Amino acid sequence: MEEEKITNISIFESKVRPILAEFIGSIILTSIVCAGAINTLSSGLNNGVIYGLTMVFLIIAFGDMSGGYFNPVITLGYTLARVLSIPQAVCYFFAQIIGGIVGAALVRASYPESEFGGSWLYGSLWKDVLLEAMLAEAIPTLILVLTVLITTLDKEKRRLSPLAIGFSIIVCSVTSYSERRRGFTFMNPALSFGPAVAYSTPYDGGEFWKYHYVYWVGPLVGTLVASLLYRFVFALGSRRIRIPK
Amino acid sequence: MEEEKITNISIFESKVRPILAEFIGSIILTSIVCAGAINTLSSGLNNGVIYGLTMVFLIIAFGDMSGGYFNPVITLGYTLARVLSIPQAVCYFFAQIIGGIVGAALVRASYPESEFGGSWLYGSLWKDVLLEAMLAEAIPTLILVLTVLITTLDKEKRRLSPLAIGFSIIVCSVTSYSERRRGFTFMNPALSFGPAVAYSTPYDGGEFWKYHYVYWVGPLVGTLVASLLYRFVFALGSRRIRIPK
Amino acid sequence: MEEEKITNISIFESKVRPILAEFIGSIILTSIVCAGAINTLSSGLNNGVIYGLTMVFLIIAFGDMSGGYFNPVITLGYTLARVLSIPQAVCYFFAQIIGGIVGAALVRASYPESEFGGSWLYGSLWKDVLLEAMLAEAIPTLILVLTVLITTLDKEKRRLSPLAIGFSIIVCSVTSYSERRRGFTFMNPALSFGPAVAYSTPYDGGEFWKYHYVYWVGPLVGTLVASLLYRFVFALGSRRIRIPK
Amino acid sequence: MEEEKITNISIFESKVRPILAEFIGSIILTSIVCAGAINTLSSGLNNGVIYGLTMVFLIIAFGDMSGGYFNPVITLGYTLARVLSIPQAVCYFFAQIIGGIVGAALVRASYPESEFGGSWLYGSLWKDVLLEAMLAEAIPTLILVLTVLITTLDKEKRRLSPLAIGFSIIVCSVTSYSERRRGFTFMNPALSFGPAVAYSTPYDGGEFWKYHYVYWVGPLVGTLVASLLYRFVFALGSRRIRIPK
User: Fold this and answer.
1) What is the distance between the alpha carbons of residues B200 and B197, in angstroms, rounded to a whole number?
2) Which of A140, B93, B214, D197 could serve as a FRET partner for C233 with CA atoms 20 to 30 Å apart?
3) How confident is the model at residue C95 (pLDDT cuts 50, 70, 90)?
């Protein structure tokens, strides 16, 4: 392997495989999280542990191929940190979104009679607590994206970054920051959009989609704040934006 | 130790010890998983945690001697990835199968009055949900074998591969991908065959064996797909099969 | 990044950023721990797991910037071990205390109707078991600070020190060393002071503050003993104080 | 630190400090495990998790000073593997035994009214299932000591050995290998002797001590088998005993 690193890398390896890695990783992530939410009935820390440990092994496996994001807002965070080009980010975005749908559809096909619909994921949200619901996505996403940027973009820290990211997801899963909302903490629009598509019919009709945007706006706001914090405060060396005097 | 590496390695170390490592590792794996399934009554994530953490420490301990598979389909995956020779794979296969039987027999001898029989492992399967049951083994095995191949055959990733493999088992244990089947997620024919032999008499007579093949066909299908994915997409350098133009 | 290490580091990076890292880390720590205590209802090991895993990822992320303390008594321990200057320690102290208040206020704002007040954190303490309560903070803090000093001040051990510190917190959370006190094990005055300020009004009026000092005196005593043990017994090389003959 | 390694090491550092490390580590281990057994009421995997994670952080902290055993049978295993001299092993033995008593006494003093006595540790053993009880200690100890020897005496594996040892303890805790015995899985005579001394008066009078030897004989048998397996099969290079032809 070492001696091959110098040779020219094929387009497949540099362009196509990263997208496939994001696609397959997103299928795995979404299907495990959905099946886990059904099978463990969301008790205690279980959902967070399943989500977090899945990210750990996916990042170890696919991290060097694609970055190991499986999450549109992490993709955005890296793009804002100038690590990812915009065309690549766009390809990743679609790979993640479609992967999320495929993963959730797989679970729905496996548990056809599940009476939950998708309520095990979305709790009793999208009614009159929109701001709270959005904060409940924004703040954990802020913590997650900040952890991702700080621990993966510094060589010294990359060694333990899969654990740091996974553990931040585990603990963020209990901090949904809103007492009137007890659903799953996504911090990932692909992870919330996939099941939303797969379970859209049986569950709650139009109401369901009416409020779905909170799972996009919340993580987006969190990511923007995390990216600003990273670029102005925590980025290393020349990656940090210095305020001119 | 360092200076001895250059000297010629004995046949014991190169041929016999790997098989003994697989044999003893498979005994440890099967007996811990079976005893754990009895003692924790399969609640929540416990079974997966026990199975996963056992694999972590066994891989750390025996990984460099035998590869640390303890699983016939992982053995097959490595053989398909051209890492393991066929005679070695055959020896490993028998070491794993016999190890699994010994481990399960040890547990049955320790818990002679356990009224469970083996139902704590096999759930209410093998009736009319054969396809679902097979998928419930095939899909998690696909995820596991893909993780094993990607993380152990790349030097950079080998460092954290025991954790990646262990965590993938923990989370796969909740994704049995079938709501009518609530048994254990084996992803390992040695782990399902061992208790099947040890508990064959008291539990369900002929019915028991009639459907046992799902625990072989399911993981085999998952492994074949994972190996194809690995060889054509995720393998590094010359190990990847390039489609000729 | 490597080549930049030689260049002169700005005052922002050497003086301001560490304090910001402690401030933001303390907000994250306090808000996750408080929200976790509310959401998981303090069952079993959950509180300790949340607290411990949060410390793991915060130390991986911020460890090289500020040291990753987020805890006034760890700050004190490092100062006593001659690693931290007194002015820096004072700045850290205020960053941690204010961070703890901000984090707890964030949680109170998110869970406004929580009837718990702060009882999920403080148990049924501060009545007639003052000495026991103080020991229940002093002994786990001793274990934590000793672990922190030993594992972070030796290069060889620093690699796994985030896990060592996190795991010591997880297990210390069950050793509150007093059967008449079943509250949270803080081992961190910033973590106990923040919620005390944020929840002071609704909960227990004057009684509440009357006994708050136990959460300062306990950890302080534990830290002093740990620092002595470290300096006289476990410190490496010239950092250890030798008793003249 | 680096430059000091060449200078002559004081007797304190080479002889006294290792014993102090074993003594203090054994106090921490025993008190955390006992308090954990009381506070979590031994549900599910909790006891094993507490025991295992404590060993992880103690080994990371004290491993390079004393080896990080805190367990007379691990001490024996190392002595049989020719790593530890007999005088050192004897000193370690007493440090571990006395440390275990001090740790358990500390817990008893903290929970004076605990009605459990020590039954939360010893289950309903020592009646008519002596052989089973002994196997319930011997087999997990065999697995633990084999893991310890293999992962710590090979430089390559030492990196992850604290995790391997901790995880093997977690999973061994559910494999007590006897259905008529549901007590704690000690795998460590210092950990069983300490609470036995501290709780001897209130609990079960003479009966209590009559069967205490199972917690010594069981682990001893397991250690002997593990040491033989290690020395004849799994030891590296010259440490392995070769059967002359």
Assistant:
1) 5
2) D197
3) very high
Q: Give me the residue label for tokens 């302080």.
A: C220
The residue ranking higher by pLDDT, B70 or B126, is: B70
First to last CA, chain C: 48
Looking at residue C201, what is its pLDDT? 60
Instruction: Report CA-CA distances (Å) from D193 to B202, D96, D122, D186, D188.
Output: 40, 10, 11, 10, 9
How many Cβ atoms from other residues are within 10 Å of residue C210's Cβ?
11
d(CA A214, CA D28): 47
D55 touches chain B (CB under 8 A): no
Euclidean distance between CA atoms B136 and B214, whole angstroms: 10
D68: closest CA among D21, D106, D134, D9? D21
Pick the residue from chain A with its C-alpha nearest to C43.
A44
CA–CA separation, C48 and C63 (whole Å): 21
User: Quick check: A135 contacting C, CB < 8 Å?
Assistant: yes
Q: With an 8 Å Cβ cutoff, are A171 and C1 in contact?
A: no
**Residue B186 has what DSSP assignment?**
-
Of D157, D171, D242, the CB nearest to B53: D171
* Tens digits of residue pLDDT in B58-114: 999 999 899 999 999 999 999 998 889 999 999 999 999 999 999 999 888 887 766
Q: Maximum distance among all alpha carbons in chain C?
A: 64
Residue A47 is predicted with a pLDDT of 83
Query: Taking Cα atoms as reference points, which of A147, A30, A136 lies closest to residue C39?
Result: A136
C-alpha of C75 from chain center: 9
CB A179 within 8 A of CB A188: no
Structure-token pair, residue B121: 């492992």
Tokens 């057994």, residue located: D37
Task: Find tokens 């279980």 and name the residue.
Answer: A46
Instruction: Select the residue from A42, A43, A45, A184 to test the C interface by mutation, using most C Cβ atoms within 10 A.
Output: A45
Q: State how far the alpha carbon of D168 is from the alpha carbons of D142, D161, D217, in Å.
A: 11, 10, 21
Q: In the numeric block, which tokens belong to residue A68?
A: 């190991």
Instruction: Tell me, yes or no, if D30 comes closer than 8 A to chain B by beta carbon.
Output: no
- Please give the Cα distance from A201 to A197 (Å, whole number): 8
Per-residue exposure over C188-197, b if at least 16 CB sit within 10 Å of its own CB, e if not = bbbbbbbbbb
CA–CA separation, A109 vs A115, rounded Å?
13
Please, what are the domains in chain C? 9-239 (1.20.1080.10)
* ipTM given for this complex: 0.89
Residue numbers in C near A172 (CB within 8 A): 32
CA atoms within 13 A on the CB side of A75: 25
Whether B107 and D177 lie within 8 Å, measured CB to CB:
yes
CA distance D149 to chain B (A): 9
> Is the Cβ of C228 closer than 8 Å to some Cβ of chain D?
no
Q: Which two tokens stand for residue A150?
A: 């700080």
- pLDDT tens across A176-198, in order? 666 555 667 899 999 989 988 88
From residue D223, how far is each of C142, D30, D71, D149 by CA, in Å? Answer: 33, 20, 11, 10
In chain B, which residues have their Cβ closer than 8 Å to the Cβ of A55?
Answer: none
Q: How far is D203 from chain C (nearest CA, A)?
A: 19
Residue-level length of chain D: 245
Q: pLDDT tens for residues D110-135?
A: 877 665 555 656 655 555 667 878 88
Q: How many CB pairs under 8 A join B and D?
A: 100
Which of A135, A150, A178 is facing C61, going by the closest CB pair?
A150
Q: CA of D93: how far to CAs of A135, D71, D185, in Å?
A: 56, 8, 20
Q: Residue B90: count other Cβ atoms within 10 Å of its Cβ.
A: 13
Give the whole-number percent of chain B exceeding pLDDT 90.
Answer: 47
Query: A121-135, B205-219, C65-79: which has the highest mean pLDDT?
Result: C65-79
